[in-house]
Amino acid sequence: MKAKVYGDKEYLIGTVDDRVFGSFIEHLGRAVYGGIYEPGHPKADKRGFRQDVISLIKELDVPIVRYPGGNYVSGFNWEDSIGPADKRPRRLDLAWRSVEPNTFGLDEFMKWTKEANTQAMMALNLGTRGIDAARNLVEYCNHPGGSYWSDLRKANGTPDPYGIKLWNLGNEMDGPWQVGHKTAEEYGRLANEVAKAIKLYDKNLELVLCGSSHNQMPTFPGWEATVLEEAYDSVDYISLHNYYGNRDGDLGNFLGCSVGMDSFIKSVVATCDFVKAKKRSKKTINLSFDEWNVWFHSNDADRNVEPWTVGPPLLEDVYTFEDALVVGCLMLTLMRNADRVKIACLAQLVNVIAPIMTENGGNAWRQTIFYPFMHASKFGRGTVLNLKVDSPVYDTKQYGAVPYLETLAVLDPLSKGITIFAVNRSQNEKLELEGVFSGFMGLRVAEHIEMTHPNHLAVNTAKNPNEVVPKVVMGKARIEKDHLSAVLEPLSWNVIRLNM
Ligand code: AHR
């Protein structure tokens, strides 16, 4: 099979916002307890932060981490999580039916973000709480001092404000499962009032309004239209969430789910712009895809997990090689929408539907999905070319005609080189990729990284952490003048780096 790609140096979609390489830590399962925080673990520092986990997170280079939920945030009293750790209350978390000891709280998380070289994207509780708790939390985090909450932060050991810029106005408030679930009218009005209060404190803070929990929600996209009508002038972004799975073993269909993600993004962009037109507004609302991943492997196991324990093994999907290809395609789709998707969070980061797994008291390792995300984060920061792609297609149950080739090219503004990311979705045929890149002189192939595996269900485990890993390959990608030819193996993830 053959596919052709045309790109031009002057024909661009937009610059990728670094924050699309974000991730998420929720007080859920072993994300915190046994994940990023495990006092007494041989690799933990004196604060209990696991250094083996931190070094894997640094490999991913995530610029933002959303926290503390997720569904958890909708019942969270943030004040429980500050002050002397031995005085903090143990609470029942209704979202995940677990016990929350609050030994790792807000101040610990903020210290941890510094260690992990990242920034917080803080979520506010708009389920059981509202304006008052939200404005107090912002004051605790961001005010320098001389007020009740900012002085309490100082008394708790943090003299300088955290300066958290990005805030979620609740989580999945359209979902009937959410503690404090609301109608679009109720939520839109509350979110607007919370947003107004926060912007009265600091108009430069950036606020994310809750969109739908996924695009199959019966209220999608009317929810978006209504909440935006209520809160358009006070917010900056609207959220999208979606998880994908291969429940019936239809790999071709599963690999096509990024086509579904793309149409979800386009529908939300259209809805934002509809409200913009209706309001005669000059302001554009951008998108925060702040939960996305593959999630289905652990669904059955989770039904048998004992409730009301600390750090139970919930949502521990063990990812296959095919999941890694899907995560690669989804990541490329987010980047291709760089003009409107400014924030995205791979949900989540450690143990809970995560690229990094740990054993309590034991090792940490990279799941299969770690690699495409890492490559995108490492080599995908730059400006996305508006490619014309001619690829053969195949038919799928859910997504119609899906191209065998998923691809994206990013121009590095410093080196002037291009990185081409490409997935061959074919299960049995190689794909010969021909690329013409006009306006680029003297490109050469610096590196071709390939990830493939004879078994699409292969996984990395504690015992065998390197079963699925990328390799540098030689001789499969060549360039002459501005003409690239590359061979993409069946079911493969490829990163072809072209330097000047
Ligand atoms: O990421 C796991 C859960 O998925 C989050 O808590 C929730 O927001 C979503 O439904």
Can you tell me about this structure?
The protein has 500 residues and is α/β, with parallel strands linked by helices. It has eleven helices and 26 strands. The structure holds alpha-L-arabinofuranose (AHR).
Notable features of this structure?
25% helix, binds alpha-L-arabinofuranose, 11 helices, globular, 500 residues, eight-stranded parallel barrel, seven-stranded antiparallel beta sheet, single chain, alpha/beta
Could you give a short description of this structure?
With 500 residues, the protein is of the alpha/beta class. Helices cover 25% and strands 26% of the residues.
Parts with pLDDT < 50 across at least 5 consecutive residues: none
Overall residue-averaged pLDDT value:
97
Helix content: 25-40%
What are the distinct ligands in this entry?
Answer: alpha-L-arabinofuranose
Number of helices: 11
- Whole-number radius of gyration? 23 Å
Distance between the termini: 29 Å
> Shape, please?
globular
Q: Structural class, from secondary structure content?
A: alpha/beta
Describe the main β-sheet briefly: 8 strands, parallel, barrel
